[in-house]
# Entry
Amino acid sequence: QVQLVESGGGLVQAGGSLRLSCTASGTIFGSLVMGWYRQAPGKQRELVASVTPGQYRTYADSVTGRFAISRDNAKNTIYLQMNDLKPEDTAIYYCNAPSLIATGSSWGQGTLVSVSS
# Structure
């Protein structure tokens, strides 16, 4: 079972930046597509960005051009650089692997990002 620990959230003003980190336990990390998800109050969790083992990246339309996902397989860690943050980016951010979610894998505690206007 892969365990996920997210960090790096905080309170920032609109236009600011944050860098999130997610460290995963287990030896299969390097073979997994990994993603950053977020859940805003009263809304469903959504996929924000994903990165394949070969560093191919995809983004939700709402964050394209502002967020950048990356991974360091040697450290079992993925990152989310978030620039030009907007109040609508306020949410709890989680990392996970789509393939693990499909098998019922648990989520980490997430990290809270709050953006003030």
Remarks:
- The radius of gyration is 13 Å.
